[in-house]
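Reply to dn_fold:

You asked what the input looked like. This is it:
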Amino acid sequence: MRVLARQVSEAAEALIVTWNAAAQSAVPRLSSLQLEALLIARRSPGINLTGMAERIGAAPPAASRLCDRLEAAGLLERRRTSTNRREIELKLTPHGQHMLEALAERRLVAISQVLLQVPAAQGEALLVGLRAFTEAVNVEKTIPEP
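and this is what came back:
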C-alpha cells in the first residue's frame, strides 16, 4: 500500500501545482489558510468564530485575526447574531463570493487546458479514481475515533 500511496502522491503533485497556481493569480492574493476560511464561510454561512477556529485548526484569537484581515479586504463580514448578541457570525460578502467564483473559473480553465493533452479514456479513469478517493475520505471522516 505504501508504494501505491507514493505513486498517487507523485501523480497528484501536478494536479496540486496546477490547482494552486490558479489561486496565486487571485486578486487579492490569499494564503491557503485565508482561502480555506472563505470556503468554510461559503459552505457554512453564519458560522461563528469558534466554529471557524475549530474548522481551520486554530485558536480563537488566531482565527479572529485571520477574519480581521479578510474583513479588511472586503471578503468577509462579521455580524452579531439575532439570538445571542455576544455571538458573532461570519458571512461572505458579495466581493468574497465573486472572488471565489472567479478563482473556481481560473482553476477550471487551468485544468481544462491540461486535460486537452490527456486521452479521453485516461481522463475518465482519472475522474473515476478521484471520485473513489473522495468517497474514501468521506467514509474516513464518519468513522468515530477510538
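The first helix runs from residue 2 to 24.
Hope that clears it up.
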